[in-house]
Amino acid sequence: MKKVLNYTNRNDAITFSGENSEVQIKVIEKNNLTLFSPKIKIKENKFPEDSLIYIQAYSRDGYVGEPIYYGTILKPKDIFIEEPHASPDQIRFRFKIIENTENKLKKILSINDGIKPWSPGKETLLNVGEGKIDSIFEVEVMPNDIPSIIFKSGLGIKADLKNSNYLKGIIFTAALREILLKYIIESDRFSECKIKREYEKHFTQIMSEEFPKKFENSDNKITEWIKRAVARFSDYEIKKGKSLIAIMPSSEINISEKLTYKK
Fold first, then answer.
1. Out of 2.60.40.10, 1.10.10.10, 1.10.274.10, 2.20.25.110, which CATH number does the structure's domain 4-115 have?
2. I need a labelling partner for 71 at 20 to 30 A (CA). Which of 63, 179, 191, 247 fits?
3. What does pTM read for this prediction?
4. How far apart are CA 23 and CA 29, in angstroms?
């Protein structure tokens, strides 16, 4: 008989980000496959030592994997799991702690969803990745998640982007328009989004005016604001005293040289 899980008495106070987080799910890519391995060290007295740990991988494009047993609170497993159906850039995790009992009805003591791969680096306002998508690239904007440009796997555009200021200028500005429009038009959906607040803060600073609100501005005003915001962002210093527009090749550069042009 399938076990029934009871969602009472939940406790979600587990840290998943930062240098000293209790759970760090590290993701690597090897031979075009995604592998993940969690480092689990949950603080004492939060849960019974024999509580069971399960981690379930899924993808933002709809794939959901099977929950994998990762030991107990006292003795968590430290193993790499191969996940062939989710790219490193789109993989997310569901983390569950379940009571260890012979009863058919088991309590879920903690459940955390939408966990991103652990990273020690500083997060930016825009991520770049690859995934199994139908179009050449898509812009993903989800509440409380950093917006991402996802390129179709196998085309190599993500790698090309690192070496091409030309591609960066074209793709980043196109993505930015979509991100800003979504944050404004779907303001209710992103009302509690921390990332949206970071965008608001950044563009309020570089524009020297308030971030537009959907119900206080007409569609034409919003469109005009986005145009000005993208133009201002393109001319804004982003790295080592250079702006996005400054690193773009001019019309004097031959088309065959534009992709790898450096300035």
1. 2.60.40.10
2. 63
3. 0.65
4. 20
Please give the order of strands across the beta sheet that includes 33-40: 23-30, 33-40, 81-83
- Strand-pairing partners, residue 68, are 55
Question: 211, 228 in Cβ contact below 8 A?
Answer: no
Token code pair at residue 168: 């960066």
Q: Give residue limits of the domains in the chain.
A: 4-115, 164-258
For 154-188, the pLDDT digits (tens) are 888 888 888 888 888 888 889 999 999 999 989 88
What is the rounded CA–CA span in Å between residue 104 and residue 121? 43
| DSSP assignments along 81-131, one per residue | EEETTS-TTTEEEEEEEE---SSSEEEEEEEEEEEPPP-SSPP-S-EEEEE
Least Cα distance to 14 among 47, 37, 36, 38 occurs for 47
Contact in structure between 258 and 249 (CB atoms under 8 Å): yes
Q: Cα(84)–Cα(114) distance, rounded to whole angstroms? A: 19
Nearest 5°: phi and psi at 173? Answer: -70, -35
Using CA atoms, how far residue 212 sits from 33, 201, 216, in Å, is 42, 12, 7
The amino acid occupying position 217 is N
CA 208 – CA 109 distance, rounded (Å): 47
pLDDT single digits (tens) 230-253: 888 887 755 555 776 766 777 777
